[in-house]
Design brief:
- This protein has an eight-stranded parallel beta sheet with strand order 3-12-11-10-9-8-5-4.
- The protein is built from 13 helices and twelve strands.
- It has a single domain, classed as Alpha-Beta Barrel (TIM Barrel), CATH 3.20.20.
- The radius of gyration is 19 Å and the shape is globular.
- The chain is of the alpha/beta class.
């Protein structure tokens, strides 16, 4: 069975429940991973915006053109990511209208496409967002961008930006991108400045009818609690320590019970939990994992629906 698709009315289309995320850090994995993803029936790609990601964009564009798949695929890119000033040892603020236009232009050139299905950006809560939303509205009007998303915005800022964007761009915020959606409780987010996926965010997602694109790697799921996580999940000690929350022992026990009863692996159960929320969720999966056994587990999990009683136990 192919990867399950979910309807996203705000986008006027359906999306595969798994979204592939290539990385320039592992360029040799991209073609095999994207090909495996396509065989699964997936058709959505996430390209994050941290410095040095030119290879992932260029290789993705070449792969899409080679196979004639651009029209069939949904492309989501991150823009306006801060850069680093080595001399001053501080980040360079790129939450600006100029960076919006510059990054979208760069993405279109690297991918060799005429439009991006969705772009998103992190917030600078100490800066007014209106000029940035105005710039995004111009990109939509010019046909270079179809929809807007946000990451690490508080619920209040999301609601305010949504209303403003609906007024000036003819559409509001469509997607929330997060690293913080997990069945486990964490003592801190993945990075200190990241916004937790708490009850206020969840309420905003439901009220605004947003789709959530959730990073679903071992570091963001909490797979280290089972002892079989991928090495990258232990790259920083705080990424392991943040899962030492007293509530998690019971959740691990419940997942172990479901493993035995349903003959599923812990990763599969976590993905099933993620994809069966009260709002639409697309799980972002790293391309290197998609051509491995782990990719097969993600594919299987995307096709399953968990019993409400089991979801209740995990909550």
């Amino acid at each position: 069975m192919p990867v399950r698709r979910i309807d996203v009315p705000q986008l006027g289309r359906s999306l595969s429940a798994l979204m592939a995320a290539p990385s320039s850090a592992e360029p040799d994995t991209q073609i095999a991973g994207l090909s495996a993803y396509h065989r699964m029936g997936g058709h959505a790609i996430h390209l994050h915006g941290e410095g040095g990601e030119t290879h992932s964009r260029r290789a993705t564009g070449e792969w899409l053109r080679e196979h004639g798949l651009r029209q069939a695929f949904f492309l989501c890119t991150q823009i306006c990511h801060d850069e680093w000033d080595d001399t001053a040892q501080r980040p360079i603020d790129r939450f600006t209208p100029e960076a919006v236009h510059e990054d979208i232009t760069t993405d279109l050139e690297l991918l060799e496409t005429n439009y991006l299905d969705l772009v998103y950006l992190d917030d600078r809560p100490d800066v007014r967002f209106e000029s940035v939303i105005d710039a995004l509205g111009r990109e939509i009007a010019n046909g270079r961008v179809c929809a807007l998303g946000v990451r690490n915005w508080t619920a209040d800022r999301i609601c305010a930006a949504h209303d403003y964007a609906a007024h000036v761009a003819g559409q509001g915020i469509t997607a929330l991108i997060t690293t913080e959606l997990s069945p486990f409780a964490s003592t801190s987010p993945l990075w200190p400045e990241y916004v937790p996926f708490d009850s206020t965010i969840s309420q905003a997602v439901r009220e605004l009818e947003l789709v959530v694109f959730a990073h679903a790697g071992d570091a963001t799921l909490g797979q280290c609690l089972f002892g079989d996580e991928e090495p990258a999940a232990r790259m920083r000690p705080e990424w392991v320590q943040r899962w030492q929350h007293p509530a998690n022992a019971d959740i691990v026990r419940h997942i172990r019970e479901i493993e035995g009863a349903r003959r599923l692996k812990s990763r599969e159960i976590q993905i099933v939990w993620m994809l069966n929320q009260s709002f639409p969720v697309v799980a972002i999966i790293g391309v290197p994992s998609l051509s491995t056994d782990i990719g097969g587990r993600y594919e299987r999990a995307s096709q399953l629906v968990i019993e409400e009683s089991e979801l209740f136990r995990l909550r």
